[in-house]
């Protein structure tokens, strides 16, 4: 049985680490990297977001929005806090 593909949009927001917390900055009119993705499960869409963020290379928070269809099982829990490229500086 094949799974139904759903349409998603992955948006990367700039993020930093401040005092041990992840901080995402939102600015109106900001041109953000976006990618349209088709996936059947939450795991697939998270894997696509990881690949997109790795290619982007900057510290970021990935926001994932479904544009067509219903959310797959476990979507909210798996997409709640997706931060990528947040390498902590070496302690001197």
Q: Indicate the overall shape.
A: globular
Give the averaged pLDDT, no decimals: 86
Beta-strand percentage range: 35-45%
What's the helical proportion of residues? Answer: 10-25%
Major sheet summary line: 5 strands, antiparallel
Order of helices and strands: EEEHEHE
Radius of gyration: 14 Å
The overall strand count is: 5
Which regions are unreliable across 5 or more consecutive residues at pLDDT < 50?
Answer: none
What is the count of DSSP helices, taking H or I runs of 4+ residues?
A: 2
> What's the number of domains?
1
The helix-and-strand class reads: alpha+beta
First-last Cα distance = 55 Å
Short description:
By secondary structure, the chain is an alpha+beta fold.
List the defining traits of the structure above.
alpha+beta; 92 residues; 2 helices
Explain how this protein is built.
There is one protein chain. This protein has 92 residues and is an alpha+beta fold. The chain has one domain. It is 22% helix and 37% strand. The protein contains two helices and five strands, in the order E-E-E-H-E-H-E. Strands 1, 2, 3, 4 and 5 form a five-stranded antiparallel β-sheet that branches. A hairpin with a 2-residue loop joins strand 1 and strand 2 (21-24). The longest helix is centred in the middle third of the chain and has 15 residues, at 42-56. It is globular and about 40 Å long. The N and C termini lie far apart (55 Å). The mean pLDDT is 86.
